TrEMBL record:
PANTHER family listed in its UniProt record: ANTIGEN BSP, PUTATIVE-RELATED, CHAOPTIN-RELATED
Transmembrane segments annotated in the record for this chain: none
Protein name as annotated: LRRNT domain-containing protein
PROSITE patterns reported in the protein's UniProt record: LRR
Pfam families, per the entry: LRR_8 (PF13855)
């Protein structure tokens, strides 16, 4: 065992020992070699000689600037490689040419500026690649093309780069998850969907994507896609044609964009959609039949928009909806009769301008109600069942009937852990008193 390291079983731990090079005398039966948090600046082909059993190698948090071309040629059994948080700017083109058994490669948070088109070509067992947090500006077509040789369920993370475009010219069926978030993409890479036919999850969040006129008229095509994240981009408008061919989509994230005129008819061919996030947009109204085709939707988030009006038939068709979030909007009135989902259990209406709130027997399934920070005076008539509610920040009129209504509610607002933080506004003799103190 190297004098600067600790050895136990088949693990050699040299973490945080101020090493400037890979030590010698590493046991030939070593399976795990941990070299993280040192000062190693370069590695050579002979540094890992005769380690035929080595499967896990961690070189993270070093000062690597140079790596020999065939550095990994002496470790034929390597399965997991981690080189992250280093000033490394380039990997040799044939760096992985002799690592046919490698399954996971972690190269995040380095200074890599480019990826060789054939870098992973010989990694026939590869399942997961993380290249996030580097400085790659363009992923050439051949670089993605090589993934058609990889095993199914390959996960590729290239987020947090400075990439402005992605090119895919030939089909691949192996990539299942692709993360291009936190880049600088300005247009939707529709070829990624069309040619990576096995793709199930595509994350394009936190880019600068704008949907063009051509995009609006041309459907995105991929019948296997389950999750599409377009949040925090610059999308201002969508049309029915755009998502019409994503027929197996289950989760769609469009929050943090600039959507204003909005109708959900664009997902008419996505009958399996279960989660839709639209918060942090500029939607002002919800029209009738906006959600008619989303019968399997479970969760709908419309918070932090500018919604001031909801048509009576806006939520028609949401028969399986369980969670509805309308918080931080501009609603003054909410008529609970517009809700027709027998599965709805959570309704969030906090931080609006509500002065009137009403429900009907259709609300019997609700077990969690949040109406904090509105202008409500009277608690609405509610189906006769026990449920939890958050009520603080309103103008409660503490009458006998109102207090009686609250007797069957678990009020969750808490000031000191014991008493509720819900205060009476009227009548004058109760003003400023906690509701829990009035009998």
């Amino acid at each position: 065992c190297p004098s600067a390291c600790e050895c136990y079983g088949t693990t050699v731990n040299c973490t945080g020992r101020n090493l400037v090079s890979i030590p010698t005398n590493i046991p030939s039966n070593a399976v795990t070699l941990l070299l993280g948090h040192n000062k190693i600046s370069s590695v050579s082909t002979t540094d890992l000689s005769d380690l035929d059993e080595l499967r896990i190698l961690d070189l993270s948090h070093n000062e690597l600037t140079a790596i020999a071309d065939h550095f990994l040629s002496r470790v034929p059994s390597l399965r997991y490689l981690t080189i992250k948080h280093s000033p490394l700017k380039k990997l040799p083109e044939t760096f992985f040419s002799r690592t046919a058994r490698i399954r996971r490669i972690t190269l995040n948070e380095n200074q890599l500026k480019s990826i060789s088109p054939t870098l992973f070509l010989n990694c026939s067992a590869l399942q997961k690649v993380d290249i996030s947090g580097n400085k790659v500006t363009h992923f050439p077509p051949i670089a993605l093309k090589t993934y058609q040789y990889l095993l199914n369920n390959t996960w590729l993370n290239v987020s947090s780069q400075t990439a402005t475009r992605i090119s895919v010219y030939e089909a691949s069926s192996s990539i299942r998850a692709l993360d291009f978030s936190h880049n600088k993409l300005a247009t939707f890479p529709r070829d990624v969907l069309k040619l990576i036919i096995g793709l199930k999850t595509l994350n394009l969040s936190n880019n600068e994507i704008v949907i063009t006129i051509q995009d609006l008229q041309t459907p995105l095509f991929n019948r296997n896609l389950r999750v599409l994240d377009l949040s925090n981009n610059r999308i201002a408008y969508v049309t029915p044609a755009l998502f019409s061919s994503l027929r197996n989509l289950m989760r769609l994230h469009l929050h943090g964009n600039s959507l204003t005129i909005f109708s959900l008819h664009f997902v008419v061919y996505s009958p399996y959609l279960k989660e839709l996030t639209l918060q942090n947009n500029e939607i002002a109204n919800l029209a009738n039949d906006s959600f008619t085709t989303l019968g399997n939707l479970r969760s709908l988030n419309l918070s932090r928009n500018r919604i001031s009006h909801i048509d009576s038939g806006a939520f028609a068709g949401l028969l399986n909806l369980e969670i509805l979030d309308l918080s931080d909007n501009r609603l003054t009135v909410f008529d609970g009769s517009i809700l027709n989902s027998p599965q709805l259990n959570t309704l969030i209406l906090s931080n609006n301008f509500l002065v009137r709130l009403s429900f009907n027997p259709n609300a019997a399934s609700i077990t969690n109600l949040d109406i904090r920070n509105n202008r409500i005076q009277n608690f609405p008539s509610f189906p006769n069942h026990h449920f939890q509610a958050r009520l603080s920040g309103n103008h409660w009129q503490c009458t006998c009937s109102m207090l009686n209504s609250l007797s069957r509610i678990d009020v969750l607002d808490s000031c000191d852990g014991n008493n509720t933080c819900v205060y009476c506004d009227t009548p004058p003799e109760f003003q400023g008193q906690k509701i829990s103190s009035i009998s």
